[in-house]
Amino acid sequence: MKNLIEKAVSTHSLTREELILLLRDSACDSELFAAADDVRRTYVGDGVHLRGLIEFSNFCRNNCCYCGLRRDNRNIFRYRIDEETIFRLVEHAVTHMGLKTIVLQSGEDLYFTQEKLCALIRRIKTLDAALTLSIGEKTAEEYQAYKAAGADRFLLRIETTDKKLYLENDPGMNWENRVECIKNLKKSGLETGTGVLVGLPGQTIDSLADDILFFKSIPADMIGIGPLIPHPDTPLARVPAGSFRLALKVMALTRLLLPAINIPATTAMETLETDGQIKALRAGANVIMPNVTLTEYRRFYEIYPGKSATGYTPDESLSDVKKRIEAIGRFAV
Ligand code: 5AD
Ligand code: SF4
Q1: Ligand nearest to the CA of 234
Q2: How far is the CA of 2 from the centre of ligand 2 (A)?
Q3: I want to staple 244 with a disulfide (CB 3.0 to 4.6 A). Which of 31, 38, 45, 273 is the partner?
Q4: Nearest CA to 18 among 256, 269, 184?
Q5: What is the pLDDT of residue 312?
Q6: Are 297 and 79 in contact (CB under 8 A)?
Q7: Can you name the CATH fold of 2-324?
């Protein structure tokens, strides 16, 4: 196992079989996490990028079986933040909180047309900040239009590369189309982020190995990996939560194979495990996305339970996150 880790550190490549061996065996987990931490330091340094997350609409046309925002969940108050307020939130995050990247995330909400989004992107880009979008599947032309309007990055997780599992969990969606969207993002010139859920019922170790190879094949600029956290108002209410350790291993292996990309310590990791984000930062991650959404809306963006129950204001959670980063000898950028 140690030889495989050394191979990954020096060549940044592993075969499917080698990935499976490392994912299955837990004897060398601490060596794997330490190796991912070293590779992270060598390639992207000790700075932790803070991206201010604004969840601007929880309307979604899709019906993913794991997600609290799914269309069929009637047990949720739907909100949409208007463009003027979104701009004010971004302005506050950039000029008062000092954040250099903003992530605008929503469900797949058709209210926000290409025209509306491009106008908003252009306005936001008058501020001195990078802009990431995380708004779902769109056409190639739409991705190109966002790029032309000034957007810098886009996040669209593949969720799983196991097509059968994807179709079971994302009813009505098309796996090939999702792959096509990710390729279109890459072609549009937007920095492209993708990622997976760890812990979907029926997900195998082999398919997680395929997920990592998929990230490399794109090649992705950012990868977000989170354990599944069952939401009570979804069909997956009663499945066990994903394994934090397994999610961390998928993340660490991703760092070894794609050494220079950006990898967030995800909120799902923090929700599932005490100090989950700090553990992730020490096993390959170099990004944190503090939530800067207005508190009054924040509790309604409940993708999974426990996520938004902090009760902190955006300013409070930002200073808290900076302290935690500094406590492990890293610094916020
Ligand atoms: N637990 C953890 N992550 C989830 N997501 C959706 N539902 C859940 C859940 N129950 C993730 C998906 C999506 C991202 C925005 O949130 O991977 O891409
Ligand atoms: Fe919608 Fe995304 Fe939730 Fe699926 S995961 S229901 S696309 S918000």
Answers
A1: 1
A2: 38
A3: 273
A4: 256
A5: 63
A6: yes
A7: TIM Barrel (3.20.20)
Across the strands, what pairs with 80?
57
**Residue whose CA is at the smallest distance from ligand 2 atom 6:** 70
Confidence at residue 294, expressed as pLDDT on a 0 to 100 scale: 72
DSSP string, 250-287: HHHHHHHHSTTSB-B--HHHHHHSTTHHHHHHTTT--E
Task: For 122-174, write each residue's pLDDT tens digit.
Answer: 999 999 899 999 999 999 999 999 999 999 999 999 999 999 999 999 999 99
**How many of the other CB atoms lie within 10 Å of CB of 115?**
9
Which atom number of ligand 1 is nearest to the Cα of residue 159? 17
Mutate to test the pocket of ligand 1, among 67, 106, 157, 236 (most ligand atoms within 8 A of CB): 67
Strands 47-57 and 331-332: parallel
Residues of the chain with pLDDT under 70: 295, 308-314
Q: Which residues of 129-161 are buried (b: 16+ CB within 10 A; e: fewer)?
A: bbbbbbbbbbeeebbbbbbebebbbbbbbbbbb
In whole angstroms, give the CA distance from residue 222 to residue 258: 9
- Determine whether 97 is exposed, middle or buried from the number of CB atoms within 10 Å of its CB (0-12, 13-18, 19+): middle
Q: Which residues line ligand 1 (CB under 6 A)?
A: 66-67, 157, 159, 197, 226, 228-229, 231, 268, 303-304
> Domain segments of the chain: what residues?
2-324
- Specify the pLDDT at position 311: 55
Residue 310 has what pLDDT?
54
SS3 content of the chain, % helix, strand, coil (to 5): 45, 15, 40
Query: Given this model, what pLDDT does residue 159 score?
Result: 98
Side-chain half-sphere exposure of 194, counting CA atoms within 13 A: 27
Q: Looking at the CA of 135, which ligand is closest?
A: 2
Query: What is the Cα–Cα distance from 266 to 226, expressed in whole angstroms?
Result: 6
The closest ligand to the CA of 289 turns out to be 1
**What's the token pair of residue 187?**
């072609």
CA 236 / ligand 2 centre spacing (Å)? 14
